[in-house]
């Protein structure tokens, strides 16, 4: 069952196309585009908007737009110093029908990818930070910093580290997901709202299921600006919005 879910999600997104590191930000944001499997499907066109590396000062404005548009989203959260003041927002995120998921407490590649123990220690730290605000048992989805196909982890934990972490995630009964559409909103070039929309439109071309990577850090004000147009564009293309968890449920019942 769990394996089935994972396979369904995996068939929709895999294969690293490119990898970048952004040295100038305190949070390294690696961006991977992946190719989704196209072809016949019984499912409607679905899109998951996902926001990584928050919460931050930009999270509430995003929530206001999502509320106004009645669009559910998924937030892969961190618990760095810069997130601390905004962590209570995860309660609001859940209350408004969105999904809170795990990303990383520290988001420091050199620390989290040193070993599998180090990785799970970081996740433990993240869960402890979230515990006052939500039901931890509901937080079962994870996005690996840099994505599951990142190679930067090899430097710290060897070539098998991601494979090990993926297996261990599944052994815990948890799930992980990458993305197949990238807004590139946290890149060093600081794209404006129009460019973020264009990046998404290009990646989403021909895909029936889109998992869109965006960020809600303090540096991604242009993402807030772009969000209404992003929502409008997906609506016009006939997509239905859902959380990552809902996508997984739909894919498992749709098979
Ligand atoms: Zn991240």
Describe the structure.
The chain is built from eleven helices and eight strands. The longest helix is centred in the C-terminal third of the chain and has 16 residues, at 221-236. It has a single domain (2-253), classed as Glycoside hydrolase/deacetylase (TIM Barrel). It has helices spanning 2-12, 59-69, 81-84, 89-95, 109-112, 116-130, 154-157, 161-171, 193-204, 221-236, 244-253, and strands at 46-52, 73-78, 99-104, 141-142, 175-176, 181-182, 209-215, 240-241. The protein is globular. Strands 1, 2, 3, 6, 7 and 8 form a six-stranded parallel β-sheet that branches. A two-stranded parallel sheet has the order 4-5. The protein is of the alpha/beta class and 255 residues long. It is 41% helix and 13% strand. Helix 1 packs across helix 11 (244-253), helix 2 runs parallel beside helix 10 (221-236) and helix 9 (193-204) crosses helix 10. The structure holds zinc ion. Residues 29, 52-53, 103, 107, 145 line the site of zinc ion.
Summarize the model shown.
The chain has 255 residues and is an alpha/beta fold. It has helices spanning 2-12, 59-69, 81-84, 89-95, 109-112, 116-130, 154-157, 161-171, 193-204, 221-236, 244-253; strands at 46-52, 73-78, 99-104, 141-142, 175-176, 181-182, 209-215, 240-241. It has one domain (2-253): Glycoside hydrolase/deacetylase (TIM Barrel), CATH 3.20.20.
């Amino acid at each position: 069952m769990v394996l089935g879910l994972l396979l369904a999600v995996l068939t929709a997104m895999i294969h690293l196309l490119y990898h970048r590191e952004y040295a100038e930000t305190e949070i390294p944001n690696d961006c991977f585009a992946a190719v989704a499997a196209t072809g016949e499907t019984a499912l409607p066109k679905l899109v998951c908007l996902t926001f990584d590396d928050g919460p931050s000062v930009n999270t509430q404005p995003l929530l206001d737009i999502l509320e106004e548009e009645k669009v559910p989203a998924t937030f892969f959260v961190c618990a760095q110093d810069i997130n601390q003041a905004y962590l209570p927002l995860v309660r609001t995120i859940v209350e408004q029908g969105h999904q809170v998921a795990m990303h990383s407490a520290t988001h420091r590649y050199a620390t989290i990818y040193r070993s599998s123990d180090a990785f799970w220690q970081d996740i433990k730290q993240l869960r402890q930070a979230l515990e006052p605000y939500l039901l931890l048992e509901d937080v079962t989805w994870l996005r690996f910093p840099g994505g599951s196909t990142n190679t930067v982890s090899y430097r710290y934990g060897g070539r098998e580290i991601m494979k090990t972490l993926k297996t261990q995630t599944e052994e815990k009964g948890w799930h992980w997901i990458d993305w197949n559409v990238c807004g590139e909103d946290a890149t060093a070039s600081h794209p404006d709202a129009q460019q973020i929309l264009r990046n998404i439109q290009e990646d989403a071309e021909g895909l029936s299921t889109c998992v869109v990577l965006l960020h809600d850090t303090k540096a991604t004000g242009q993402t807030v600006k772009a969000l209404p147009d992003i929502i409008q564009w997906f609506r016009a293309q006939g997509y239905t919005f859902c959380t990552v968890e809902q996508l997984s449920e739909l894919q498992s019942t749709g098979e």
